[in-house]
Amino acid sequence: MIHRRIAAAAVLAAHLFCAPAFALELSVAEPTPTLVGTSTRFEAKVTDVSGAVEIRWTFGDGEATEFTEGATAVTHTYAAPGHYSVIVVARDDSGFQSRSFVHTVHTQPTARPPQSASPLAYLPERSYVVTANTDNDTVTVVDAGALETVAEIPVFDEPVAVALAPDGKLWVVHRADYAVAIVDLDTLKVTGFFRLPYASQPMGIVFGASGDAYAALMATGEVARLDAATGELRERRFVAPWLRGISLSGDQEHLWLTRFVSPEGRGEVYQVDAATLDVVARVDLLEDTTTEDSSVQGRGLPNYLFSVAISPDGKEAWVPGKKDNMARGLQRDGLPLTQDNTVRPLIAILDLDAREELPEWRIDLDDRNLPRHVSFSPLGDYAFVSIYGSDMVEVWDSHTKNLVTGMRGSKGPVATILGPEERLFVLGDSSRDLLVYDVSGVLSGADHTTRLVGEIDLVANEKLSAEVLYGKQLFGNADDPRMAREGYLSCASCHVDGLDDGRVWDFFDRGEGFRNTTALVGRRGMGHGRVHWSGNFDEIQDFEGDIRHAQGGLGFMTNEDYESGTRSSSLGDPKAGLSPELDAIAAYVASLETIPRSPYRNPDGTLTDDAVAGREIFLRLGCDSCHAGDDFTDSAEGLLHDVGTLTPLSGSRLGDELPGIDTPTLLGVWQTAPYLHDGSAPTLRDVLTTRNPEGKHGDTSDLTEEELDQLVAYLLQIDQGLPPTELVLPSDPGGAGGAGGADGAPSDDPDPSDPGDPGAHPDGNSASAAGCGCDLARSSGPARSGAGWWCALLLLGGLARRSAARARAETGRAL
Length: 815
Prior knowledge:
Blueprint: H1 2-16, E1 25-29, E2 34-35, E3 39-47, E4 54-58, E5 68-69, E6 73-77, E7 82-92, E8 95-106, E9 115-116, E10 120-123, E11 128-133, E12 138-143, E13 148-154, E14 159-164, E15 170-174, E16 179-184, E17 189-195, E18 202-207, E19 212-217, E20 222-227, E21 233-238, E22 243-248, E23 254-259, E24 266-273, E25 279-286, E26 301-303, E27 309-310, E28 316-324, E29 343-351, E30 356-357, E31 371-376, E32 382-387, E33 392-397, E34 402-408, E35 413-418, E36 423-428, E37 433-438, H2 440-444, E38 451-457, H3 466-475, H4 492-495, E39 504-506, E40 514-516, H5 543-548, H6 559-562, H7 580-590, H8 609-620, E41 640-641, E42 661-662, H9 684-688, H10 705-715, E43 776-778, H11 789-811
Parallel strand pairs: 2-8
Antiparallel strand pairs: 1-3, 3-6, 4-5, 4-7, 7-8, 9-22, 10-11, 11-12, 12-13, 14-15, 15-16, 16-17, 17-43, 18-19, 19-20, 20-21, 22-23, 23-24, 24-25, 26-28, 27-28, 28-29, 29-30, 31-32, 32-33, 33-34, 35-36, 36-37, 37-38, 39-40, 41-42
């Protein structure tokens, strides 16, 4: 498209160089965007004519007319959607005159627009934009016209998505409280709520035209169908572990869901029949093992598939995430991991009719980190990509798959949405703000500039301390040159939300070995003792070494401090207190105190009968001698154990002998498959059996199959033993609203216990087997331009600058 424009401008310039200072007057009535395959009428008006007038039209798709007398009106049909540079040149006896503009050709949108779950919603009837403020347990309502906050409304724990119900109420989805709050937009208060299945971690919700609502339940791996009027749970169906993103097609027939953490070899997106909840198809995003690793591209396994956005015509879906280079490493292909070929950003594009990925369109965003969300322009010709780890939103031409422009400003952008007056609203999760950009120039094709027109603070009373919030911002930001050389890696690259990424990395180049990524949630930073499987860090600030070496960052410490004494060693002189940034990151990691509840428990949070029996087996076998105390680990004692799992691929510890493995906590082990330090146990049963042939990891050889099942059931239910939270309406903390479903009496079981891999665990345990409550609690409530050579030079110069800017943008660092 760029080359077409420059070529057309060159033709135009050849005419303009010869044009006199005063010539005929030419104007064009630019047509509105037209549907692909239909006839477009172009009209020009010519005045101040000297003699006969001939007109030539160039349509931007490789076709043009000849100079024809009186051709002020022509029609043209475009065979493909796109943004076409149309040029009209008129000549008479006095010389030449020209005009150019961009004409948009689009595909046919579906009768109803597709829906995608999001923490950001635009409510056109009220001209409101609503945000979910996840860390602060509120939603904020913003006047989309005045760009002012209308209200910040308290809700429940960890709101992650908002959506407008058919009755005009706002539904707010809560991950930690597995609940939906109902907000009356007249009173701007929570007037009701209902619970979803216990500990199910709902991540998003969409509404169908038939009166149904659909929710993705990440912890149980299920999709739930609800009555959109009452919130009643009508049906739930297991699809796959780690369900996160959910979208509903415009024809209302199918749901599309992403598996957040991928299995080996592929990422997964599921098509589900909206009427039956049957899985129609699984679309595999295959691991790329053939692309040559370089500074601008690389191999990788699609992972962290945050969301799925369906194009307005219903033909494509864009899936943002990352690629983990599992083919690389000294033991895998002989190449060390590098800062630009460990994790790379990904946008996968699906052909929804064919139910397959279009690998030739897979986008590898250069010098970026963790794209999380995509939204489309109304015609589907532009895609707005929120890049969380780069503090950036990029605009992509959805037809050519080319980068158009980008916008910086928000910290940790997690979603965008178009509002009135062609304004783009950007939700900054880490900056607690809503940035508003005028993108009218982009949408019209007139230019690719954007303009910041508003910045709205969303949170009045921040719940996190200033240090913890700063640490969160640093934790997720790969664009800071102190964190990463070229913007690819941050702590969040493998630990979004403090979780793991399900991957086993080849860290032989770091003096270690094959290492399974561990989750950070519940560990309280150094709360369990030394960090990593080999216990090679004794403070979170030791990550300064990885930041400087593996990530290529400048580091957060001064070189003088870092190189002083033995401080550059991870077990050397302390680093704490020498860098406010490292201390803030450590404070943020230490704040991750709570693990998600186990969905394998009973709906009231107690252990199942099998788990109670399994706990007795756990104690009888002496498992608690190492997996001890409330944290289910003896890591604080600094011990390393050889439990028969070491192999040559276990490698070393800090480049020296690896005598054993640090005892991992069992808290939250239900969601951390694969298991063991090298990920060699796909399931917990494998930990006890196939990877325990000598009985050094507990003598399980005499256990019956039933006892093994019971022991696994207990392991899958080990969490912090927290009783279900009793919910009350935030607007009436004195007690209105009641418990709402499955938050009855607290568990009388004093021992923590935990679940397993989200959904149907590989061991065969189904998180849904425990059942759930889903009750609804409500309360009542309320000028002539010269045609000389200057014009030609300006036109050519402008196009050249635009082309150069786009070329720089496509390499990633010019924006």
